[in-house]
Write a structure and sequence with these properties.
The structure is a single chain. This protein has three domains: 219 residues, FAD/NAD(P)-binding domain; 118 residues, Succinate dehydrogenase/fumarate reductase flavoprotein, catalytic domain (Flavocytochrome C3, Chain A, domain 1, Alpha-Beta Complex), CATH 3.90.700; 82 residues, Methane Monooxygenase Hydroxylase, Chain G, domain 1. 30% of the residues lie in helices and 20% in strands. The chain has 14 helices and 23 strands. Helix 11 runs antiparallel to helix 12 and helix 12 packs antiparallel against helix 13. The strands form six sheets. Strands 2, 3, 7, 8, 9, 10 and 19 form a seven-stranded mixed beta sheet that branches.
Amino acid sequence: MTAAPRRLPGRLLAPAPGWTTMADVVIVGSGIAGLTAALRLRGQVGKVLVVTKDVLNAGSTQWAQGGIAAALGPGDTPEEHEWDTLVAGAGACDADAVRVLVTEGPEAVRELIALGTNFDHDPDGALSLTREGGHHRDRIAHAGGDATGAEIQRALIAAVQAAPDIEVIEHALAVDLMLGSGPDGVERVVGVTLHVMGEGQRDGIGAVHARAVVLASGGLGQVFTQTTNPSVATGDGLAVALRAGATLRDLEFVQFHPTVMYLGPDSRGQQPLISEAVRGEGAFLVDGPPEEGGSRFMQGVHELADLAPRDVVAKAIMKRMLETGAAHMWLDARHLGAEFWERRFPTILATARSHGIDPVTELIPVAPACHYASGGVRTDLDGRTGVPGLYATGEVACSGVHGANRLASNSLLEGLVFSRRIAAVLPGELAPWTPLRTDRRPSGLIDAEVRRELQEAMTARVGVLRSAPGLTEAALLLDKLAGCVAATPDQESWETTNLVTVAAALADAAAGREETRGSHWREDHPERDDLRWGGHFDVTMTDGVIAAAFVPAPPTDTLPPGALPPGAVPADTIPAEPDGAA
């Protein structure tokens, strides 16, 4: 007898809207992706409304430490940046999307500077650039040493607040997308329902009627027990898009940042990130204090050693932890010195000291934690989803640039570049005002009490290390949690329903991909398999039932026979050393 399929809510159970408003374009999210879209769309459409779950600066952009990657330095080229991105993506990138990212990226960063973003500069006045994992050039622009995201967010918020034609609603959770159909009979997004917390005429559930919606709502980090993501990252944008008929792609490729400060086995929620830029400036990983016999274990693992792509470093740390039985590894940055730490990484230094560790004199305990969703709502090169009237950008989207493993500091660039592209096409694609149709999707709600059980199961079974038995256990638990019904709608239950929905989509895709590729690590299938698994898993939902389908595609990180990577020097052109040279 075949078990009944797991059935999730087709929309969230919520009271009828108590207020309504209208906007030509609603942008859900206020990080670099959302605010860039808002600023680029103003003046091109009648009314732009930005809704954000907390305050304007509460999303993931604020926490970005390392910087933003672009070919801005002497000798660097978009082609070299492209190749580094394709290699890090382990063959699963969309080559056209990557080319868009790296060729349009430098201009986009220069416009960010013109907007008022104060990046760091060298003493000679040149833009200060550093290197992170997977990059073969110094191409990471940073601000305030290690406060790049905060500075970008400051500049964008200032520009938005100076624009009277951009309206902002804070403390607003996007509950569900509203659907309608025009004279052509095609179903499209015609608005979004919100739950607004606060005082005033827009308290509680309301409806925003719109001609287009842009999702820029960030990631899914709170699916796991430990993450670098803020508490607002509960996968809301992914869940509302899936329920509205959009496709999620590459969701199994969740990047676990290798160097997150380890706070103990009982620590939960957002954890302190130790930026990859610290290793870019010379720090290195060890399995114990060198003065007590600890050794550097990244040597020989990859040509870039401690600056290998994130999936390589995270796996190496996990392997060493399993070999030694240790709960974490260590990052040694003591040799950088107090003056350098205080100038280059003041935020990380203060955070570490607040947790009782002084990186100037002590090793930093580190372990991998959930950091970034490389997959998301499938889009084309202009941010269109498969649902008319719905666009997506930033971490919530799968533009194809990240593949199986995001290259360091490409995330801010992606939000910047693809929001600009959405703003270039969306005004010409706005449909007439379309009436709302009767929503026949089955409503439901999952009890908020299951959140911790969900997070612990996802961390243990669908985290850094995955296998068929663990994924089966996770699927059975998700079946159970889907039936834990909540009686009263509230924000915690809405968020938990979104988390269970996204977790189910992620786990189903991870179970289907029987190989190890990028940030997806299957212990029972330890090798990459382009023949069987070159391509993508697309997840859809119909009547509350999730389905994952494999879409084959050729790998994008291979070179023609005899070709050299961009920037490489042919061996026969390197002058021979003179006799007697050491």
